[in-house]
Design goal:
By secondary structure, this protein is mainly alpha-helical. Helix content is 93%, strand content 0%. Keywords: Membrane, Transmembrane, Transmembrane helix.
């Protein structure tokens, strides 16, 4: 873990220095470098995300919880992270309005994904009241 965060920090510092230089000389290349850095970090973290999902699946199986709910929660978390990630890339490119739209869309998708869980909770509450 310590080595991985050191690698991320090192790459981030080098990228930041290059971005400071490029933004003055070639702003378009700075945006390309920023997006490339974002993709590299995303790919670097894919293994970690896969491990988290595998662990959650195993815990769900052991606890004998309906996997539908856990899968839905994982999807919601995924949408939140991907939406934030995409919005940050848009902001890095100077497209703040596009970033806001990405954030809005992610929030709507999260609400849609959470509807089955909310319905199940409400149905359970209604059964308890009867």
């Amino acid at each position: 873990m310590k080595v991985e965060i050191a690698q991320v920090i090192g790459l981030a510092l080098v990228t930041t220095i290059l971005l400071l230089i490029l933004r003055q000389e070639k702003p378009v290349m700075a945006v390309v470098l920023s997006i490339t850095f974002s993709i590299v970090i995303f790919l670097f973290m894919m293994g970690k995300m896969a491990a988290i999902i595998a662990l959650m699946q195993e815990l769900t199986r052991r606890a004998q919880i309906n996997y539908f709910f856990m899968a839905t929660i994982l999807k919601i978390i995924g949408v939140a992270y991907l939406g934030e990630f995409a919005a940050a890339i848009c902001q890095d490119a100077g497209e703040h309005a596009v970033a806001k739209k990405v954030e809005f869309a992610a929030k709507i998708i999260i609400v849609v994904l959470s509807l089955p869980i909310m319905v199940a909770i409400l149905e359970s509450m209604m059964e308890l009241m009867v």
